[in-house]
Amino acid sequence: MQFARQGFTGLGRRDTECYTTCFFGLTSAACEPGPGDRNLVVDAGTRLAIGDDKPPPAGTAQTVAGNYCRITTSSNDVFCEIDRLGLYKVYHTADRAIVCSSFLALAEILPQLTVLEQGVYEYLIQGATYGRDTPLAEIRVADPCERIEVVSGRIERIEQRSPAIGPAGGDHGAMEQLLHMLRARFRAIADLSDGKIDTALSGGYDSRLMLALLMETGIRPRLHVYGSADSPDVKIAKSIAGQMSLELTHIDKSAMTRNVGDPLDMVPANYLAMDGLCSDGIFNNGADLATRRARAASGALALNGGGGEIYRNFFYLPDRPYTVEDVVKVFYHRFAADTFSRRFEQKAYAARLGDKLAESFSDQRHELSRSDVEWLYPYFRCRFWMGRNNSINNRFGPALTPLLDYDLAQIAMAVSIRAKNHGRFEAGLIRRISPELASFASEYGYSFAAEPPLRQRWSDTVTMHRPIWIRQHAYRIKRALRRAAPDGASISLAAVHKRYPHAVDRMREYLAFNRLSDPAQIQRAASLGYLFAELGC
Fold first, then answer.
1. Confidence class for position 472, pLDDT limits 50, 70, 90
2. Is residue 68's pLDDT more than 70?
3. Could you give phi then psi for residue 89, rounded to 5 degrees?
4. Are 507 and 110 in contact (CB under 8 A)?
5. Which tens digits make up the pLDDT trace of 98-143?
6. Topology adopted by domain 170-260+285-312+397-405+416-451
7. Per-domain boundaries in the chain
8. What Å distances lie between residue 78 and 59, 98, 106, 143, 204, CA to CA?
């Protein structure tokens, strides 16, 4: 198992802001160094191998765990390969002549940029773009099934996309294999980090599983919890930390204020730090930026429990076959068409998203078994939504999502849906590693030490068997019940327009702002408008 120690350098940009970026390939005349030179800058998610005259053999990514971009240079070329789930984001031009870990850095050196409507609507609705798309037509997302030969732009297919084949021994065999793999990974993490680790603790499954694995290796990590003082997460985290004598920092992001002027002053800094866009947008008081910096303080390795849902029934769907169109209706239909302008074509949007889901399989299948649906969680949802967040974290220092990588996903995808229902399987993992941590209460109102109570199993079952047509319209129903935009959303939009009118005006061709009441979509719309205005597209 290899977790490479990283060297840190930065691509300096504007004033004193400096964020680590891996940028290599053929540079444009507008960028230093000059045309034809290579600019290799290594960030926390990039492993650099120099002096090898040949590219690494196909499939060697299997020997490296984590979320990373591996660069191999030779006397004649540069080769780029990312982790097999694509959880570390790498971008390239259409001809692959320039490859970069920063979406924004790549956008700023290109002579021409064109807005891609599908990317616009995906970000507005989902908080991320999917498939190879970004909000800009000229910038594409690297495929984890490909190795890029950078200077020539040639690609080599290194594997096929395929769901898991289950281990011998069924659910029991899967649990034993996952325990072995997780323990090996956390031992490697402990060695790599020299014990300096920052991770969250909440009332849920994933942070508890990570804490159990860390403490088993002898690590007592620096813990944090976000939320108001009376939230279940905060109360549970404080209880666990207190009884186990662990260091815990409680941060209420909503109460964080800055001593310097208007929160909108933070937008330019957020824009650079978040690589242009993040899932929650850049129009905030800087709490997101401050907490990400704090997690990386003193060179700590920042761990995130994202992706731990591979050990549970994330989609809350019964165990039966589905179509790609079913999955789009259930999980990717969080919009009301009347909030968009007339140019939005709902059927075309959904069809394109369905095609991207199908492309997660080598045969681009549209008829899915229940195990195929499970595969879509790590290879589609996590790859594009969580992977973007993980990549931003790597701009501040080393960061990992250790509960999810390709090999772990292959085993977890083979666990039966029955075992994953009601959190049984992940609770079992926690109990096997630390019965003491499993015994504490959770945000669900019970501990992980025993079978979930009947009320929880009944509630989960009702949710799982809710008809697809109801799920498809759930967002619109909730929006109708809200009736009007919350005051905070209206004030926020007015304030944004007053300070950054270009950020709102640029998006009017895509949105009917007078009908837009979702604060999250207002935030993303302003952020995307700011990006387009800054880039002049």
1. confident
2. yes
3. -80, 135
4. no
5. 888 899 999 999 999 999 999 999 999 999 999 999 999 999 999 9
6. Rossmann fold (3.40.50)
7. 11-157, 170-260+285-312+397-405+416-451, 322-368+459-478, 483-535
8. 17, 11, 17, 17, 43
